[in-house]
Write a structure and sequence with these properties.
CATH architecture of the largest domain: Roll
Low-confidence stretches: 2-11
Number of strands: 8
CATH topology of the largest domain: SH3 type barrels
Distance between the termini: 28 Å
Helix content: 40-55%
CATH class of the largest domain: Mainly Beta
Strand order of the largest sheet: 3-8-4-5-6-7
Number of helices: 10
Shape: globular
CATH superfamily of the largest domain: Ferrous iron transport protein A (FeoA)
Radius of gyration: 18 Å
Structural class: alpha+beta
Order of helices and strands: HHHEEHHHHEEHHEEEHE
Number of domains: 3
Oligomer: single chain
Mean pLDDT: 89
Strand content: 15-25%
């Protein structure tokens, strides 16, 4: 998810610059991913120089939000995770509002949510969460906070699915969300969380996987498919948040 830093934080959160918040959010999305979250990898994801990333990591470490392991891997501290979760939650709630109530597309809603997330007060945030039915994830299926992350299945990479099997799209990971073309492709083909599809072909030679879904056949590379988590067969519908009936658009 191409999350921009918010311009306002809750009084209970550390007061961070927009740049610092962006780094925390990026480290949050890298946690548990396939790429080791080193300073070099962080700089690549942030599209900044390694020196700039190292300077920010130093500041965040001093503030007790990030720790550097012996293997040079970066990790959010408990306080850093709380701060990143708070920003991510506001962004996610706004995405639900913009996509499911107002009717914007995924890519457009991401940009608009980034503009708005720093403007809402804690009171408005909680009323928004209540109106939306307190979603445990963002619209792409990513856990909205640490508690949701602990209680939800991890899913398996779509790239590991076998031809001929049925799968349910479970989660479009935050790393996948950074690829706007992929995000738009998935939305256009209705390959969204909760969608049942059949894997029709897996070709390592052509580096591709094909699915039979709601709009017919769709094909993507195995690398982007590795960033999409699925569940085998028809998944439990309760895993996928549904807005209260009175809050859906006509």
């Amino acid at each position: 998810m191409r999350l921009m830093a918010s311009r306002r934080v809750d009084a209970s959160e550390p007061r961070l610059s927009e740049a610092a918040q962006s780094y925390l959010l990026t480290l949050r999305s890298m946690a548990g991913g396939s790429t080791k979250p080193t300073t070099t990898a962080l700089a690549r994801r942030m599209e900044v120089s390694t020196q700039a990333a190292a300077e920010m990591v130093g500041r965040l470490t001093t503030e007790g939000l990030v720790r550097v392991g012996r293997d040079r891997a970066l990790e959010l501290t408990a306080g850093g995770r709380r701060a990143a979760d708070a920003i991510f939650r506001r962004h996610s709630l706004l995405e639900w509002l913009l996509t499911r109530v107002i009717g914007l597309g995924w890519a457009e809603s991401d940009e608009e949510a980034a503009r708005l997330q720093g403007s809402i007060s804690p009171r408005v945030e909680e009323r928004l969460a209540e109106m939306l039915g307190n979603p445990p994830t963002c619209p792409h299926g990513n856990p909205i906070d640490a508690e949701a992350a602990r209680t939800r299945p991890r899913g398996v990479p779509l790239s590991e699915a076998e031809a001929g099997t049925e799968i349910t799209i479970f989660r479009i990971t935050e790393e996948a969300e950074e690829d706007i073309e992929l995000l738009s492709y998935l939305e256009r083909h209705q390959l969204v969380p909760g969608t049942l599809a059949r894997v029709t072909e897996v070709s390592h030679g052509r580096d591709s996987i094909s699915l039979d879904g709601p709009t017919g056949t769709s094909t993507m590379g195995l690398r982007p498919a590795a960033l999409i988590r699925v569940l085998p067969g028809r998944a439990d519908p309760s895993l996928f948040h549904v807005l209260p009936e009175t809050r859906r658009p006509d």
